[in-house]
Design a protein that fits this description.
It comes from Hirschia litorea. This is YdcH family protein. InterPro entries: DUF465, DUF465_sf. By secondary structure, the chain is mostly helical. It has one domain. The chain is built from two helices and no strands. The protein has helices at about 5-25, 30-55. The radius of gyration is 13 Å and the shape is elongated.
């Protein structure tokens, strides 16, 4: 897989996680830890995207 394709794939995953986090925040029954875990996952993806772009 090319770097550009990997960045696109990660960007899509990042966007989907953002939607998921927003949905979970709207639900009062969602545990805070679950939201934190999703945020950490999103941050790891962002870090990987930045790393790939840096080259």
């Amino acid at each position: 897989m090319s770097t550009d394709a990997r960045i696109r794939e990660l960007s899509e995953r990042h966007k989907r996680l953002e939607v998921t986090i927003d949905d979970k925040r709207k639900s009062p029954s969602t545990p805070d830890q679950e939201i934190l875990d999703l945020k950490r996952k999103k941050l790891r993806i962002k870090d990987e995207i930045v790393s790939l772009k840096a080259g």
